[in-house]
Amino acid sequence: MAIKKLLSAFFLLSVIFLCPSFSQNYNKVDQIVLKYPKRFDTTEELADRIQKDFSSDRDKARAIFSWMAFNINYDLNAFLNPQRSQGFSYRTEEEKQQKIKQLNDNMLQKAFKSQKAVCEGFTVLYSHLASLTGLKSQIVKGDSKTRLVDIGRKTPHSDHAWNMVLIDGKWRLIDVTWGQGYYDSSKGRMTKEFAPIYFDTPPEYFFTKHFPDSGEYLGDKLDREDFLNGPLIYNKLIEYDAQVLEPKSGLIEVKNGDNITFRFKNISKKDVLFYLNKKNQPVKIANSKERKGGLEFDIIYDKNIGEYITFFMDNNSIASFQIKQK
């Protein structure tokens, strides 16, 4: 009964961020940063400590990510009650850039001192600390995909921001906001839970959840339709280096009695895989076969399958699809 209640509770959760479900995974850098003070007087003091303890670009970038994820909290109140955007006038491009820099400086210092921020605050603080430790970074703004209703959404949003940092000559993708925790609407509060998968996330995973306003990544054009219409994936899928191979679309149109074929990379028959029916009852995948480096199985569409179908592995959600009846 406890497992059944846990599974039913899944559908009561509406998350702002991808809901983490895996155990804490600290590397050597994280273990050192965990011993740092929770507060520093200045960003320069924190940067000096990081440079003293770490020499490689990767370790410094990870240390900034970890310290922020451990100590900066998502400002839910600011998210729910956003302030009106600050406008300003300027006469020259130089004056414009100076005023933008001042606004960003105020934002990052507020995030650092109050230890609360929304995604913009996380990104400007990360970029500032990266600069202080000799790293090149960029802030990227764009769309995010975190909820069931985002599958097949028609209207693009620009509601999120993240970082790219140059490590060993290669730009790496980082989302500290999602690295620090998630919002649990069943409790009405933020839950602090370290998610290291959002440091140097592989692009093939990152861009299933993020879409830059520019529509490009390192000069390559990204497909907005693939982003909007793809399945919703969860942290566990990324952690296991698994992948949805079939169907490619998160929108599945079927008639009653149709077979739907699913195939997941890096998942085997030994993994406990199931989905929830319309009554939130777990249905175990029983007809699976290992094929082409993954697990393939069919599900027959009937009245017991609801508007969405979410697959679970070891009691953790891994991917969701929207089902539309023809």
Automatic annotation (TrEMBL):
Membrane-crossing segments per the record: none
InterPro entries: CAP/Cytokinesis_protein, Papain-like_cys_pep_sf, Transglutaminase-like
Statement: the UniProt record of this protein carries the keyword Protease: no
Residue stretches making up the Transglutaminase-like domain: 111-178
GO cellular component term, pick one: cytoplasm
Signal peptide from the UniProt entry: 1-23
Keyword Signal in annotation: yes
Keyword annotations of the record: Signal
Name of the protein: Transglutaminase
Native species: Flavobacterium reichenbachii
Lineage start: Bacteria, Pseudomonadati, Bacteroidota, Flavobacteriia, Flavobacteriales
